[in-house]
């Protein structure tokens, strides 16, 4: 419980820091809006031209896009320590100052940064999600709301886990941004669209290795009433939990990497 | 047993560099950062750790504060092994890096401190007591609501010290704490360290290049060469061995007067006088004086011991560093 409190208080302090520079904050937030608005425009144009993709209607596509935006940017906002600042902490030796405090390294890394500028990206995602659910006439039963919440929550840990790959590689001082980005940013760009739109190899990648499909597309398709892969109901509830498996593996590898860091130094 | 017990500590780093132009292969070179270093420190001691850049001072501090694991050797600090059970161990130590800030940059330092209170799980009452005590000793009262970024370097160092001592550690490591500080800030910092050491029997190990720090603070000093311990004892004993030369500055009434001195004495014309460096053991001062007087009437003359930094430079040179 103390850890949650520590995280919340850290967030408070960090937000206070960011608001020390209000103009810069405002401008960057606007820039984020333009960026993510552009991403959504791509979907709008696609829908305008083709009006459906396989069995997915325009509304469904907005829904998938919105789900990814909301999840991905919530992660970038609250997981900024891992998704953004970790490599520079290793490079500058700032990581040492975390090692001398009696708390877990990942906890402290998560507590060390937040990125509230992403709020506009999340807002775009919410707009798209709402629009999509209206157009596809989603019935917002308690079960559907819960399923959506589960999907976003599990998606947070999935994306965080994928960003941990970059963290692990950079401890081993490997320049590897491209490899890691293929799964994180690449995963985001690809899985804005339902996974069955892709050839088999990519489908496997985003189901088995970076399970965006299991965490987002399976429950989302259930909410839209068109279960993907023809999977049963319970699968939609169970499959998002795969993100915890991935996250646990990454945490284990991260701990191993930290042992390496402590025996080599910087 | 002593509070810090270090035996046969060794640490190697591997660095890679390109071996030749155009070659993609990188050559691995091993740097022996520490080699068979042993020492004991009692609780409540204040110890200076000196040596040229790259001697392994920071590596020692990093190992003893649990950031690095050594390749060989043992270390016990307060009965615990620093690199085992990190979270349990670091509760009892404080570390200050002179060139690396640990507090949050953009918020008042009081906010940083209250976050540290949560990180170290310090009870409210103990925190308040300790904070007011430290704020007074470090003269931070007016600064508590100032963000770190608006502070001078000296103020920042005081703020950092306060932050790393809030949880009342038994042991304090300081890695070049006076680097870049002005004279007033240095004096204040030294006074504070003496106070903390006396009031709470906090064991303090500091690395420095500033010999004044050592002279003012540390009854005991350890000298580290590239990886090896070269000396361990009092500063006076260390200097006695190297402190042999004296400098004489002399001016004559008449400009044409030139003293005729033996070869063991360095003589240099400086301005309208001379700078003479001699060793009283080789040439007794009385003899030097009579030689100087033979050259003509002396207008003024000063005799000075050598600068402490020169002594250390001589010492490093003699030790082959």
Ordered list of secondary-structure elements with their pairings:
The complex is a heterodimer of chains A (266) and B (321).
Chain A: H1 2-18, H2 22-50, E1 52-53, E2 56-57, H3 58-78, H4 80-92, H5 94-99, H6 105-111, H7 119-135, H8 142-171, H9 177-183, H10 185-190, H11 200-209, H12 212-223, H13 233-238, H14 242-264
Antiparallel strand pairs in A: 1-2
Helix pairs in contact in A: 1-6, 2-3, 2-7, 3-4, 3-7, 3-8, 3-12, 4-6, 4-8, 8-9, 8-12, 8-14
Chain B: E1 4-18, E2 26-41, E3 46-50, H1 57-64, E4 72-77, H2 86-90, E5 93-97, H3 109-119, H4 124-137, H5 153-165, E6 171-175, H6 183-200, E7 203-207, H7 211-217, E8 220-224, E9 229-234, H8 235-242, E10 246-252, E11 266-270, E12 273-278, H9 285-294, E13 298-305, H10 308-318
Parallel strand pairs in B: 3-7, 3-8, 5-6, 6-7
Antiparallel strand pairs in B: 1-2, 1-4, 8-9, 10-12, 10-13, 11-12
Task: Give a nutshell description of this structure.
Chain A has 266 residues and is mainly α.
What report would you give on this structure?
The complex is a heterodimer of chains A (266) and B (321). Chain A is mainly alpha-helical and 266 residues long. Chain A has one domain (2-11, 22-264). Chain A has helices at residues 2-18, 22-50, 58-78, 80-92, 94-99, 105-111, 119-135, 142-171, 177-183, 185-190, 200-209, 212-223, 233-238, 242-264; strands at residues 52-53, 56-57. Chain A has a two-stranded antiparallel sheet. In chain A, a hairpin with a 2-residue loop joins β1 (52-53) and β2 (56-57). In chain A, α2 runs antiparallel to α3 (58-78) and α2 (22-50) runs parallel beside α7 (119-135). The longest helix of chain A has 30 residues, at 142-171. The two termini of chain A are 33 Å apart. The relative contact order of chain A is 0.13. With 321 residues, chain B is α/β, with parallel strands linked by helices. Chain B has two domains: 43-240, P-loop containing nucleotide triphosphate hydrolases (Rossmann fold), CATH 3.40.50.300; 244-305, 2-Layer Sandwich (Alpha-Beta Plaits). Helices cover 33% and strands 29% of the residues of chain B. Chain B has helices at 57-64, 86-90, 109-119, 124-137, 153-165, 183-200, 211-217, 235-242, 285-294, 308-318; strands spanning 4-18, 26-41, 46-50, 72-77, 93-97, 171-175, 203-207, 220-224, 229-234, 246-252, 266-270, 273-278, 298-305. In chain B, β11 and β12 form a beta hairpin. The two termini of chain B are 33 Å apart. The model of chain B has no long low-confidence stretch (mean pLDDT 87). Chain A binds chain B through residues 2, 5-6, 9-10, 13-14, 16-18, 20, 93-94, 96-97, 99-104, 108, 259, 262-265, and chain B through 11, 13-14, 59, 62, 65-69, 71, 83, 86-88, 90-91, 93, 95, 97, 100, 102, 104-107, 111-112, 114-115, 118-121, 147.
């Amino acid at each position: 419980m103390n850890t949650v409190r520590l995280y919340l208080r850290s967030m408070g302090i960090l937000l206070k820091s960011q608001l020390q520079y209000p103009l810069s904050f405002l401008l960057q937030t606007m820039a984020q809006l333009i960026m993510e608005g552009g991403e959504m425009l791509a979907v709008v144009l696609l829908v305008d031209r083709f009006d459906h993709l396989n069995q997915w209607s325009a509304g469904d596509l907005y829904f998938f896009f919105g789900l990814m935006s909301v999840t991905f940017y919530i992660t970038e906002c609250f997981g900024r320590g891992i998704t953004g600042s970790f490599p520079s902490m290793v490079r500058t030796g700032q990581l040492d100052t975390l090692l001398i405090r009696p708390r877990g390294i990942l906890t402290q890394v998560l507590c060390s940064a937040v990125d509230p500028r992403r709020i506009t990206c999340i807002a775009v995602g919410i707009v798209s999600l709402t629009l999509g659910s209206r157009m596809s006439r989603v019935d917002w039963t308690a079960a559907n709301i819960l399923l959506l919440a589960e999907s976003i929550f599990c998606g947070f840990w999935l994306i965080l886990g994928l960003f941990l790959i970059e963290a692990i590689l950079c401890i081993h001082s490997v320049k590897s941004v491209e490899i890691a980005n293929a799964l994180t940013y690449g995963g985001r760009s690809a899985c804005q669209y339902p996974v069955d739109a892709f050839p088999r190899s990519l489908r496997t990648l985003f189901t088995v290795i970076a399970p965006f499909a299991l965490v987002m597309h399976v429950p989302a398709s259930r909410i839209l009433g068109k279960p993907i892969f023809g999977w049963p109901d319970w699968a939609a509830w169970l499959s998002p939990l795969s993100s915890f498996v991935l996250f646990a593996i990454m945490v284990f590898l991260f701990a191993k990497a930290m042992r390496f860091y402590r025996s080599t130094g910087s | 047993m002593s509070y810090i017990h270090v035996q046969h500590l060794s640490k190697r780093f591997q660095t890679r560099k390109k071996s030749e132009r155009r070659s993609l292969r990188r050559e691995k070179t091993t740097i022996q950062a520490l080699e068979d270093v042993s020492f004991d420190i009692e609780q409540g001691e204040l110890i200076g750790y000196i040596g040229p850049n790259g001697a392994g001072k920071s590596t020692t501090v990093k190992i003893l504060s649990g950031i690095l694991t050594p390749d060989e050797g043992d270390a016990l600090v307060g009965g615990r092994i620093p690199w085992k059970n990190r979270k349990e161990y670091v509760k009892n130590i404080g570390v200050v890096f002179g060139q690396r800030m640990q507090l949050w940059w953009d918020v008042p330092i009081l906010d940083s401190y209250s976050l540290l209170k949560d990180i170290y799980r310090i009870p409210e009452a103990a925190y308040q007591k300790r904070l007011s005590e430290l704020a007074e000793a470090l003269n931070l009262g007016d600064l508590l609501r100032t963000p770190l970024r608006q502070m001078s370097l000296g103020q920042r160092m005081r703020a950092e010290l306060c932050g790393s001592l809030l949880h009342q550690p038994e042991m304090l490591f300081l890695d070049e704490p006076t680097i870049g500080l002005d004279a007033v800030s240095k004096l204040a910092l030294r006074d504070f360290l003496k106070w903390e050491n006396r009031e709470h029997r906090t064991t303090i190990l500091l690395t420095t290049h500033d010999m004044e720090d050592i002279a003012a603070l540390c009854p005991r000093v350890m000298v580290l060469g590239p990886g090896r311990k070269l000396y361990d004892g009092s500063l006076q004993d260390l200097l006695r061995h190297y402190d042999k030369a004296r400098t004489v500055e002399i001016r004559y009434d008449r400009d044409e007067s030139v003293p005729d001195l033996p070869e063991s004495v360095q003589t240099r014309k400086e301005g309208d006088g001379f700078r003479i460096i001699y060793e009283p053991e080789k040439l007794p001062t009385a003899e030097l004086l009579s030689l100087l007087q033979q050259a003509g009437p002396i207008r003024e003359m000063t005799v000075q011991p050598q600068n402490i930094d020169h002594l250390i430079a001589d010492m490093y040179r003699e030790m082959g560093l």
